[in-house]
Structure formats: structure tokens, C-alpha cells
Predict the structure.
Amino acid sequence: MRVKIHGAGSIGNHLANASRRLGWQVDICDVDSAALERTRTSLYPGRYGKWDAEIGLHESAKAPKSGYDLICVGTPPDHHLALALAALDEKPRALQIEKPLCMPDLAGLAQLVAKAKAQGTAVFVGYDHVVGLAAELAQKRLKTGDIGKVQTIDVEFREHWGGIFAAHPWLAGPHDSYLGFWRRGGGATGEHSHAINFWQFLAHEAGTGRVAEVQATLDYVSDGKVDYDRIALLNLRTEGGIAGRVVQDVVTVPHRKWARVQGSTGSIEWTCGVRPGFDAVRWWTNPGREGFEEVAKTRPDDFIRELQHIEAALASGSPDASPLALARGIETMLVIAAAHESARTGRRVRLDHSRPPDLDALQS
Ligand SMILES: NC(=O)c1ccc[n+]([C@@H]2O[C@H](COP(=O)([O-])OP(=O)(O)OC[C@H]3O[C@@H](n4cnc5c(N)ncnc54)[C@H](O)[C@@H]3O)[C@@H](O)[C@H]2O)c1
């Protein structure tokens, strides 16, 4: 595979490393030449041991065009869709766009959907947790049917964002990045949207459909310097009628990244980082059977698995069936947009999936 990555930041380096580990050819582009230099001299060697001179580094304006199998968009969310639309002109086999897919105003999303569909380009959104090994174990356990009829789903991604700023020492704080601005795709709802996406993944696996209702309480910080939600509490109901909850925040220490599916005769729990270097799945069924399985993994492994998944999804000929497919990323964006709308109006927001998403309606 020949891969182009937009953004020489944290995720751009992870995706570049994962591509190289798979023996793929990689070019990284960035509008900021300091970011390219930082990648070569500190970020990449600091994380993965040494710089890999096979990786091409290019200022965006002078970057090579066309001939790529996969183009990844790993920039701040407010640039995702403009870059993705331009990337489609290069006619890659696939696009991978980082989470969250776009800004909560959904500007540009309808054009992306139409253009990708017209061209037949597969589009994936970077919610890597749903294709992790522990998620696969939870999925298999759910498919056995041992836990009976699914009653409720809970997912929490609660993590103080100090770790993100530690990994970005060049940022002075939330005000210095999209992170401090929910309208640009930051705040807890955007940054930790892995939880919403994971909830949707479990709901689909449980056969209860898409999210149909969102009722949210968001705790905003708005002081003239930043404008973001630090805590997001979401009550969700699916098309199939299951009610559940998502909690995302940027204040919790130590972190908790956890999911639970409760059925009529048992339950399944997934934990990311149950202890350093391990994810885990725990399950119980009545009467009295239980299991616990740990999965060793490193952070780079998450992205190697994600790219392997994308390669396999392309080879399968049905990339739309992937849990990383664009439709799932859009579903997550609709929940993010609805959460802000619910917080603004104090009302429950209904998502109508019976017709193509009316991407403007949520903003009215
Ligand atoms: N899937 C995951 O687990 C995961 C992990 C980290 C980040 N992310 C996502 O990746 C995205 C980027 O996050 P990050 O932490 O890497 O940010 P970052 O600030 O470390 O890097 C972003 C880079 O994009 C560059 N950039 C900005 N506009 C650009 C443009 N128009 N063209 C090319 N380059 C441009 C910036 O100069 C910067 O170097 C976000 O959407 C974030 O949520 C996902």
C-alpha cells in the first residue's frame, strides 16, 4: 500500500509508524514545517526508537499528488472535511479520516458523502477502539447470546486531558488548539467521542439499531479564552428501544475507559487499559458462570490493527460493512450535534433515520 497522511502530529506519527510496521510506503504532509521537523527529530524517534528515513516528509503545498491507495486525514477536526474532499480528487482506493469526523455544525459532510459515493471511494473514520482485540472478544461473547436479551448499554471514556497536553508540549493549553473549542470539534463530546462510537458499535452488535434519541447534560467552560464542554452526560435510546448512557469527560484521574452490556441473563464488560499494557473483557452469566480475559497491547498496536482492518475491509469488497465505515462516523457526529442541541434547548433530540440524514436540520 502507498499511504499519504495529512498532519504530522500525534496521530499522524502513529499512522505513519503503523504503516511502516506493515511494510507500506508513507508520505506525511503538514502545513507547518516545524511539525515535520519535530516528527523527524523528536516525535517519531522518541516514540518508536529511531527515525525511519523511508518516510517522506512534505510541506502540504508541495506534497506529491495521486498514486496513493490510502489517504489519512490526521489534522485537527476543523480541517478534516476540506482535506478529505480535496483528497478524493486524488482518487485513492480509500480515505481514513480521524475522529471526530467533522465539526458539530456538520458543514461539508453532505458534500463528502455525495462525492465519495459518486466516486466509489471507501471512507473510514478513525474510531480504532471498535476494531481492537478486546472489542472483538466482547463482540464474540455478545454473539453467543449467553447474556440473553440486551437490556442496557453503558460506556464511559473519562480521562483528564493532561495526558494529551503532555504529549503535545508545544501547546500552551486548551486555548492553543481545537481542544478548547467545542464548535471546532474539541471538548469532551468531540475529543472522547470514542465512547459514543463504542456505544453505537455495541448497540449494532446487539441488533438494536441506531441511536434514535439523545438527551444530554453538558458542563461547558466558557471564559472568553476557551469554549468547551468538560463533562458530557448523554442518555440515549436506540431505534430498537434500548435505553443507555454515555459519559465522556476531560477531568477524570485516573482514567476510566469502560463499557458494559447488561442482558437478561448476564453481562459483558470491556475495559481499556485495565492495567498498563492490557485491555480486558469480563463476563458473567446466570447461574454463576464467569470469565475474564486480558489482552496485551501497546498504543502502536491499536493503529497497526486499525490499518490491517482497513486493508482487510477493502479486500473483502464490502468496506461499508466495517464498524469504521463512514456511515458509523456520521452516526457518531449526529449524536455529538444532537447532544449540543439538547444541552442548548434542555430537550430530548430525536434522530430520524428513516430518510437520509438531514444534516442541516440539527442546526436549525
Ligand atoms: N484515534 C485516536 O485514538 C486519536 C488519537 C489522537 C488524535 N486523534 C485525532 O487526530 C486528529 C489530530 O490530532 P493530533 O493529536 O494528531 O493533533 P496535533 O496537533 O498533534 O497534529 C495536527 C497536525 O495537523 C497539522 N495541520 C493543521 N492543518 C493542516 C492542514 N490543513 N493540512 C495539513 N496539516 C495540517 C498541524 O500543523 C499539526 O502538525 C484529531 O482529530 C484527533 O481527535 C485520534
